[in-house]
Amino acid sequence: MSLQSELLTTAKQAQKAARFLSVVSTEEKNKAIKTMAKELLKHSKAIIAANKLDVQSAKKEKRNSAFIDRLSLDLSGIKKMSDDLIAVADLADPVSEVIKTWQRPNGLVLSKVRVPLGVIGIIYESRPNVTSDCAGLCLKTGNAVILRGGKESIHSNQAIYKVISLALRKTGFPQGCISLIQTTDRQAVNELLKLNDYIDLIIPRGGESLIRGVVENSLIPVIKHYKGICHIYVDKYADFAMAQAVAFNAKVQRPSTCNAMECLLVHADIALDFLPEMVKHLRKSGVEIRGCAKTAKLIPGIKLASNQDYATEYLDLILSVKIVSSLKQAVDHIAKYGSKHSEAIITENLRNGTSFLKSVDAACVYLNASTRFTDGNQFGLGAEIGVSTDKLHARGPMGLVELTTYKYVIIGNGQIRT
Amino acid sequence: MSLQSELLTTAKQAQKAARFLSVVSTEEKNKAIKTMAKELLKHSKAIIAANKLDVQSAKKEKRNSAFIDRLSLDLSGIKKMSDDLIAVADLADPVSEVIKTWQRPNGLVLSKVRVPLGVIGIIYESRPNVTSDCAGLCLKTGNAVILRGGKESIHSNQAIYKVISLALRKTGFPQGCISLIQTTDRQAVNELLKLNDYIDLIIPRGGESLIRGVVENSLIPVIKHYKGICHIYVDKYADFAMAQAVAFNAKVQRPSTCNAMECLLVHADIALDFLPEMVKHLRKSGVEIRGCAKTAKLIPGIKLASNQDYATEYLDLILSVKIVSSLKQAVDHIAKYGSKHSEAIITENLRNGTSFLKSVDAACVYLNASTRFTDGNQFGLGAEIGVSTDKLHARGPMGLVELTTYKYVIIGNGQIRT
pLDDT tier at A207 (50, 70, 90 boundaries)? Predict the structure, then answer.
């Protein structure tokens, strides 16, 4: 069978399974997810053995330690995957929720009812836990899912999928509910992205180049997350101790995440009092500072930040700094360089705080808190399939609700249009 | 200036205007919209004169009368455009609505707040009233809009745009809030669809080929409406009089609309009692029947329906008919041939009704009412920018709310992530 017809078969089976899933009860879905969780533990040895093959290849290819760390699975890693599945099973099912209901003068009763999206394609890179995470989240929301992991974790993904597949069989769910693309052929992604008659949504998870490739080639709607260039603006009326603690947290606690701060904006009136102390604190934790000319005057010896720096998601212990002369200049800088992810202001002035929250266009805008909170669990959504920096359908952390759409259900007693 | 750089300038101005619009008060937006309404009436002569040029060209090109009808504007047409603008100004503003708010154990207060989408591109065909409709709906929701009408109505659109532009000036709104692409060069659409750094959403309004072209070339998310192949299923337990009235209404009242019925499904057990009478009634109004083999046995002399017929949106006084042996067969037929637009069941049996509503995947599912109600005004949304057969972001009739997105506003008192 050609690659094209193989993918078409997979997509058709997924669409058929999606029709099955759309009317399955919450109890049955939960049972399947919990069975997956149990089977993962039962087959942990086989998964770890398969994972070893991937880790060996990665080492052979001289991948860096962060990469190998993301790829590696041990018993505690599998335990976590299993626990996460149980947590998803225990969450409330958003499907069938009546979002709104109203009656028209002619007697028609309209309801907006939450329903699954249909078939979701997930294109991801090396983390093998994404395989079980996405399988659980999609099944819970009544969506069929087609998984396409990176070639670096193919053995791990196949081993995990084998277990998931077994759990589906044991609980009477069609195999099409969860599919894993078995080939590592890169062309498979491009072929998949053309199947817009069968797949309703693509979620790419990975680096910017992967995502750009998906967007450029997809006929299917894509919800994505390019990058997080998050700012903290320390206003003239900031509480300095709070500003220092929050900015430090946003930069240092986990610099490799998309919600970490990449640029610190400081009002000129307080720069002299605030910035040298802040920088000292950051440098103690190994943060490299790249500042504007005004910053360099206050803190000699730092590297000057270029426009390119302000446009860069470092994901590392590096920080751009810019001294601004007004709230407006801070907001303009964020409009120019921000990635519409998470932006924060630190201020005790209500007017400035409100103005920032209103005029900054981002998925999440913060007053007096760290940008690091942009996360499904931290928001209390229970779990997330990712974060969206898009504006359509879902914005910010995407939980179960964001994996659904709605339909209008209209009940009448013979109404006709006149 | 090249076409490319001209469009880029337009898009950049729109993005800048969108930032302006995102913080403008409801009162100011309403004032601008009402000024547009007033100026349209004041300049009706100039608009009608411009429209005459378009109508003359259309006649020269031997366009059919339906086309010329859609294109033509007289004083009452302009009055309607003006009234529609005032109606939009009088609707509630969805922007700034707090959709949901909650507190986390660490004291963070999260709110999901409705905000404008940003910049919306509308690509449409010949109806010149779309120019003022979309301008009003987008301005009301705080979105900048880039309008690209068909070349057939370029003179009308330019005349209407001139008036809109004057109203913006009179009320202190930047011109970038509403732009009209002045060239009729087809390449302009393709260039526009690449400007995903500036435009947040594309809504194509027109025939299927226009929409397919947009989807294939767009890097910007598209919300669309391909076609409406709507079914009415007359169940075994239907009230015959109701079924006949509803089916007749859905086919005959306005056959050229996307929510008109294109295919009638009838349960085999009642076909003999119901169908001949129904067909007689439809034929009296000039409806051509194309039926399955079983239908042909009941009603001799009709044309046999091909698979192609079942997949066709006639938009005309033609109806496909199929006799099915079960509710399941009806639902399967709809899953295969439906366009996920509007689907109805006529039955007095609650179990069958509920099963149909649950298992049919469409934007709007009806029990005992005509599919002709799928419309923003009929739903009570006040106005609509179109109907979506997509599943992401907006489904079914799109009113003001569907022209917005949300952001998370998080208020803390110094929370950091641990």
Answer: confident
Q: Do A379 and B416 touch (CB under 8 A)?
A: no
Q: What tens digit of pLDDT does each residue of B136-183 get?
A: 999 999 999 999 999 999 999 999 999 999 999 999 999 999 999 999
B392 lies within 8 A of chain A by CB = yes
8 Å CB contact of A249 and B416: yes
Q: B15 vs chain A: nearest CA distance in angstroms? A: 10
In B3-22, the residues whose Cβ lies within 8 Å of chain A are 19, 22
CA distances in angstroms from A341 to A125, A225, A309, listed in the order given: 21, 9, 17
From B117, B215, B414, residue closest to A242, measured CB to CB? B414
Q: Where are the domains of chain A?
A: 3-224+393-411, 230-377
Interchain CB contact of A108 with B (< 8 Å)? yes
Give me the half-sphere count of Cα atoms (radius 13 Å) on the Cβ side of residue A116.
30
- The one-character DSSP state at B155 is H
Q: Do B416 and A245 touch (CB under 8 A)?
A: yes
Restricting to B residues 189-218, those with a Cβ less than 8 Å away from any Cβ of A are 196, 200-201, 215-216
Q: What is the value of ipTM here, to two decimals?
A: 0.95
pLDDT for A62 beyond 80? yes
Q: Give per-residue pLDDT as tens, A214-242.
A: 999 999 999 999 899 999 999 999 999 99
Give residue B340's Cα distance to chain centre.
14
Q: Rounded to whole angstroms, how far apart are CA atoms A49 and A30?
A: 28
| Dist. CA A144–CA A175, nearest whole Å | 10
Residues A117-144 have pLDDT tens digits of 999 999 998 789 999 999 999 999 999 9
Q: Residue A179 contacts by C-beta under 8 Å, 6 or more apart in sequence? A: A10, A13, A14, A144, A145, A146, A147
Which CATH architecture best describes the domain A230-377? 3-Layer(aba) Sandwich (3.40)
What pTM was computed for the model?
Answer: 0.95
Residue A1 pLDDT level (bands cut at 50, 70, 90): confident
Structure tokens, A230: 């998050």
Backbone angles phi, psi at A263, to 5 degrees: -145, 130
One-letter-per-residue 3-state SS of chain A: CCHHHHHHHHHHHHHHHHHHHCCCCHHHHHHHHHHHHHHHHHCHHHHHHHHHHHHHHHHHCCCCHHHHHHHCCCHHHHHHHHHHHHHHHHCCCCCCCEEEEEECCCCCEEEEEEEECCEEEEEECCCCHHHHHHHHHHHHCCCEEEEECCHHHHHHHHHHHHHHHHHHHHCCCCHHHEEECCCCCCHHHHHHCCCCCCCCEEEEECCHHHHHHHHHHCCCCECCCCCCCEEEEECCCCCHHHHHHHHHHHHHCCCCCCCCEEEEEEEHHHHHHHHHHHHHHHHHCCCEEEECHHHHHHCCCCEECCHHHHCCCCCCCEEEEEEECCHHHHHHHHHHHCCCCEEEEECCCHHHHHHHHHHCCCCEEEEEECHHHCCHHHHCCCCCCEEECCCCCCCEEECCHHHEEEEEEEEEEEECCC
> By the 8 A CB rule, do A288 and A318 touch?
yes
Pick the CATH number of B3-224+393-411 from 3.40.50.620, 3.30.420.40, 3.40.50.10490, 3.40.605.10: 3.40.605.10
- Closest CA of chain A from B25, distance in Å: 12
Virtual CA dihedral for B289, B293, B294, B297, nearest 10 degrees?
Answer: 80
Residue of B nearest to A355 (CA): B23
Is B365 an interface residue toward A (CB < 8 Å)?
yes
Q: What value does the mean pLDDT take over residues A39-64?
A: 97
Strand partners, A411: A109, B367
Closest residue on chain B to A241 (Cα):
B414
